[in-house]
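Usage

Read records sequentially. Each one opens with the input sequence:
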Amino acid sequence: MSVALFLVEDLPVGEVFTLGGVEGHHAATVQRLRVGEGLLLADGRGGTASAVVTAVGRGTLELRISSLAYDDACDPRLVVVQGIAKGDRGELAVQAMTEVGVDEIVPWAASRSVVQWRGERGGRAREKWVATAREAAKQSRRSWLPVVAGPPDESTGRVVDRIAGAAAGFVLHEEATVGLSTVELPASGEIVLVVGPEGGITPAEVAAFEAVGARTVRLGPAVLRTSTAGVAALAVLSARLGRW
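and closes with the structure output:
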């Protein structure tokens, strides 16, 4: 069984470290780690530290650091533009995409998004996505935390700009004739993948994305939900790029 991972702002610089705060409480009180057990610390930016518990306090752990490591950021970088969905479907998508290795998630207020993120509500909704990605990264033992882009009112125009600056852009669309498993992929840079909301992507949005170089692609004959389409597409790309 793999050891638990806890996120810290910065990795330890010496051989001893006190894990406190929310992560320390979770480790000592919720998971009840004991003296002699191992764990991982990660800074969310590729750095990790292997550690062993030497003492347990109230909501804190005293650790002995045994080794440090660093994982390079993946290249190409996988960015998913996720259409904002109603209910918890967006959070489900964020959780699963984090587990399979997404590098950045861009919330998209598509024309057919039932829910629109505006003002304080939008800020709170985005923070839920950030928290979901953080917990999923810990569960899946990721050394890199995925970025959740902001501000929360990411318009179609912003998505167009993002695709224009990417190495490749792909739009998941049920009427596409080309499979994501067959398109040419860049060796470096950003791959931007667009996933529509429950109501799908409008012809005007597709045209805007295609105008800056995006290609419409499909995964297969089935129409997937907005909460699962990005996950399936990331799995295809991860296999093709040698991540898996």
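Summary fields computed downstream for this record:
- Residues 5-70 form a domain with the Ribosomal Protein L25; Chain P fold (CATH 2.40.240.20).
- The radius of gyration is 20 Å.
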